[in-house]
Amino acid sequence: MTRIEIQSRVGPDGVLNLSVPVGPAEANRTVKVTVEGVEEPESKPSMTPEEWKAFIDSTAGSITDPTFKRHDQGEYEDRGELFP
Question: How far apart are CA 54 and CA 59, in angstroms?
């Protein structure tokens, strides 16, 4: 039998459900299952509002392709009043 590695996440109820397809040739065999925690990569801290604004400001005018253009946006459809 070949070694199979599957990564799965424990549900919010604390239960790990596994479904491991091993094929009919491996039916009625005894197997050993080892559960080992995987270290999650550290998440990058989110930007402060000031950092986000600085990032957005830095992108202004960053498209240098002279063929890039904003296509016609069309006209708004005329709708009746919501509360006449």
Answer: 9
In the DSSP assignment, the letter for residue 4 is -
pLDDT tens string 57-83: 999 888 889 999 889 988 888 888 888
- DSSP reduced 3-state for 50: helix
Phi/psi of residue 55, nearest 5 degrees: -65, -45
Structure-block tokens of residue 72: 């016609």
Give ∠ CA 55-56-60 in degrees, rounded to 5: 115
Considering only CA atoms, which of 11, 6, 65 is closest in space to residue 38?
Answer: 6
Q: How far, in Å, CA of 11 to CA of 17, rounded?
A: 8
Cα–Cα distance for residue pair 15/8, rounded to 1 Å:
11
Q: What is the pTM (predicted TM-score) of this model?
A: 0.38
Task: Report how far residue 69's alpha carbon sits from residue 65's, in angstroms, rounded to the nearest whole number.
Answer: 9
